[in-house]
Inverse folding.
């Protein structure tokens, strides 16, 4: 049984070996995430290994470049792990010197103008709390209010109720986009956006065969969510930073709301952060973590993601296996209720969506075994996936990059093939593919959908119901 929901694994030293990458793909990984917040030196070699695995396994693998964005970070320390005592005075300043037990660099001058006495400063994704007791032009004096506070280099900083407008890509992000394009990444994930402006700016810097993922991490993005969803190709619910900004107890309802909104606009959605956090150190997940994955699948998430569990965890193989088993178990039950999903799709008199909704209805017939989607740009594949049809989705594209991009979508198996040069050629290609698929037998039905004229990326306007062997 193949899972429909997809899995992203974050690249890191725990899985750099080709044998590990191969095992992860065997167990269900569909995409790898490159975290540009960390050092990416030598990543070319890792990507070469991934492409080698892709060729060996015959499975298209998506690469996601996750940009750092405008996330606030402290500088580096003299020691690898710097302990700060409870109630100790500690300074954040603009000096470039390495930090110690009394201070650390905080190179964000805009913040100094807005911060006030009594403000909270949260470090390392909210793990450690500091309270501002005074400030000067180039330093913020605080008291540590956390026991067992251990600070490390470049850890994140979050300051509740201090808002700074960030509506432009940073120099680093622009540089990283160029790197990601040269590396052959298929998706660009934009961090800490507040509205659709970063998406529109990024579009101008990438090719059409690269998708954009908007990461939702703050209350500003939630206020502008409809415009963001319309502008992006996919959404990532980055629950760690989002929880710090809106409160942990608010995240579950926001997650469900965002998945529903993405359903309405036929956009894919990724649920991320701490899905199997305990498996960084342990080889068995908690029941709560299993339930968290299942909940995301029940709600309709296209993709779930592993971060530190895969990148630096002690048990990345077990983590992926656990995630796949949970997805399969959940989807086996959810299959009974698949018709309830995506019934609220907004068509806005869009004929393409109307055509593909009819494809979904046709696919409920148990004799329909697959939907073959000819998709030059990947748009048709995205829409068919969004409809959640009961039959298997096979996407055919002459572009290897489009194939890799859509392989991240729910239920899609992408096939890189020559483009059809006419109606008869389209049927010839379809029949060649059907012959190789063991689950399709004579007299089974296959739905074939494409856009005419052939060879152009345009709207889907043709559907054929083909009886195998006829």
């Amino acid at each position: 049984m193949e899972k429909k929901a997809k899995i992203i694994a974050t690249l890191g030293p725990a899985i750099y070996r080709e044998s590990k990458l191969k095992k992860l793909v065997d167990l269900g990984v569909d995409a790898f995430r490159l975290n540009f917040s960390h050092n990416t030196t030598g990543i070319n070699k890792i990507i070469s290994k991934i492409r080698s695995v892709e060729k060996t396994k015959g499975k298209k693998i998506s690469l996601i470049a996750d940009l750092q964005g405008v996330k606030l970070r402290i500088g580096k320390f003299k020691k690898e792990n710097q302990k700060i005592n409870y109630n100790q005075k500690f300074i954040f300043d603009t000096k470039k010197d390495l930090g110690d037990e009394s201070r650390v660099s905080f190179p964000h001058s805009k913040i100094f103008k807005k911060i006030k006495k009594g403000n909270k400063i949260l470090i390392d994704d909210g793990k450690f709390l500091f309270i501002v007791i005074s400030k000067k032009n180039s330093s913020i004096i605080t008291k540590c209010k956390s026991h067992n506070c251990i600070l490390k280099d470049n850890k994140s900083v979050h300051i509740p109720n201090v808002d700074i407008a960030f509506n432009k890509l940073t120099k680093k992000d622009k540089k990283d986009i160029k790197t990601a394009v040269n590396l052959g990444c298929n998706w660009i994930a934009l961090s800490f956006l507040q509205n659709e402006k970063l998406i529109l700016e990024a579009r101008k810097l990438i090719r059409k065969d690269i998708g954009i993922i908007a990461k939702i991490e703050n209350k500003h993005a939630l206020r502008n969510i409809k415009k963001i969803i319309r502008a992006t190709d996919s959404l990532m619910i980055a629950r760690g930073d989002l929880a710090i900004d809106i409160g942990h107890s608010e995240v579950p309802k926001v997650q469900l709301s965002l998945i529903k909104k993405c359903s309405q606009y036929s956009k894919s959605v990724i649920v991320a952060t701490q899905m199997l956090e305990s498996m960084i150190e342990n080889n068995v997940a908690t029941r709560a973590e299993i339930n968290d994955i299942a909940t995301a699948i029940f709600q309709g998430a296209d993709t779930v993601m592993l971060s530190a569990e895969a990148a630096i965890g002690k048990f990345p193989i077990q983590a992926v296996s656990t995630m796949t088993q949970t997805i399969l178990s959940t989807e086996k039950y959810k299959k009974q209720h698949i018709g309830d999903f995506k019934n609220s799709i907004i068509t806005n008199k869009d004929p393409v969506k109307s055509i593909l909704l009819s494809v979904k209805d046709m696919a409920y017939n148990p004799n329909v075994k697959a939907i073959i989607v000819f998709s030059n740009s990947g748009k048709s594949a995205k829409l068919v996936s969004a409809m959640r049809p009961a039959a298997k989705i096979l996407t055919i594209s002459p572009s290897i990059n489009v194939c890799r991009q859509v392989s991240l979508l729910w239920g899609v198996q992408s096939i890189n093939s020559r483009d059809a040069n006419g109606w008869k050629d389209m049927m010839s290609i379809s029949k060649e593919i059907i012959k190789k698929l063991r689950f399709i037998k004579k007299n089974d039905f296959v739905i074939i959908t494409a856009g005419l004229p052939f060879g152009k990326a345009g709207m889907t306007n043709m559907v054929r119901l083909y009886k195998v062997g006829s």
The chain has a mean pLDDT of 91. The chain has 16 helices and 22 strands.
